[in-house]
UniProtKB/TrEMBL annotation:
<protein>
    <submittedName>
        <fullName>TetR/AcrR family transcriptional regulator</fullName>
    </submittedName>
</protein>
<dbReference type="Pfam" id="PF16925">
    <property type="entry name" value="TetR_C_13"/>
</dbReference>
<feature type="DNA-binding region" description="H-T-H motif">
    <location>
        <begin position="27"/>
        <end position="46"/>
    </location>
</feature>
<dbReference type="InterPro" id="IPR001647">
    <property type="entry name" value="HTH_TetR"/>
</dbReference>
<keyword id="KW-0238">DNA-binding</keyword>
<dbReference type="InterPro" id="IPR009057">
    <property type="entry name" value="Homeodomain-like_sf"/>
</dbReference>
<dbReference type="Pfam" id="PF00440">
    <property type="entry name" value="TetR_N"/>
</dbReference>
<dbReference type="InterPro" id="IPR036271">
    <property type="entry name" value="Tet_transcr_reg_TetR-rel_C_sf"/>
</dbReference>
<dbReference type="InterPro" id="IPR050109">
    <property type="entry name" value="HTH-type_TetR-like_transc_reg"/>
</dbReference>
<dbReference type="InterPro" id="IPR011075">
    <property type="entry name" value="TetR_C"/>
</dbReference>
<feature type="domain" description="HTH tetR-type">
    <location>
        <begin position="4"/>
        <end position="64"/>
    </location>
</feature>
<keyword id="KW-0804">Transcription</keyword>
<keyword id="KW-0805">Transcription regulation</keyword>
């Protein structure tokens, strides 16, 4: 088995286990068993659990970024492109495996004790905020809209995870519609 395939299997296994159970609850032996690799191979790829956690967060970042961008790309019109973020959330929240934002979960469980995890979470959130800012700018909205929309998306993720229902996506989308229309009307932009 090629090293890249081994690495992918380990990261996929760790991601699934960490996301379902939490970072502290999952040991390297459980990841080894789930990935179907030897402990020696596991530690050969990831000498520490911290390195593996960062690799999982990198995977989650790519999944989020690619997923949101793909959903937005299927939509035409400035307002619709901004609202597509919440449509992506709605699809994600109904997934049986949904357990909230992996970055919020990691930060909550490890962030205070692990500066690398805290930095990975901050970098991920900043990346999303820049993406929303680009969409808002393309729509002709002022700079205040993007952080408002990002906060709605973040709050929806947390609310959906805690409530155990997907309703937060529709609620956030409805609030986003009001904010977007007000921002576009105030700037004279048309969607």
């Amino acid at each position: 088995m090629a090293d890249e395939e081994v690495r992918r299997r380990i990261v996929d296994a760790a991601d699934g286990l960490y996301y379902a159970k939490g970072f502290h609850a999952v040991g390297m032996d459980e990841i080894r068993d789930s990935a179907g690799v030897s402990l020696r191979k596991l530690y050969g790829e990831f000498p520490s659990k911290d390195e593996l956690i960062l690799a999982v967060l990198d995977k989650r970042h790519r999944m989020w970024t690619d997923g949101v961008a793909a959903r937005v790309a299927t939509t035409e019109g400035a307002e619709a492109r901004l609202l597509a973020i919440y449509d992506y959330l709605a699809d994600w929240f109904v997934d049986d495996a949904f357990r909230g934002c992996g970055f919020i979960n990691a930060f909550g469980e490890l962030g205070a004790a692990d500066p690398q995890v805290a930095e990975a979470a901050r970098t991920h959130k900043e990346s999303f905020q820049r993406y929303v800012a680009d969409l808002a700018r393309e729509a002709g909205a002022g700079p205040a809209l993007a952080p408002q929309l990002a906060i709605l998306a973040e709050g929806a993720q947390t609310t959906a995870a805690i409530a155990g229902t997907p309703d937060a996506a529709a609620d956030a989308r409805a609030a986003a519609e009001v904010l977007i229309r007000a921002a576009l009307a105030g700037s004279g932009a048309r969607s």
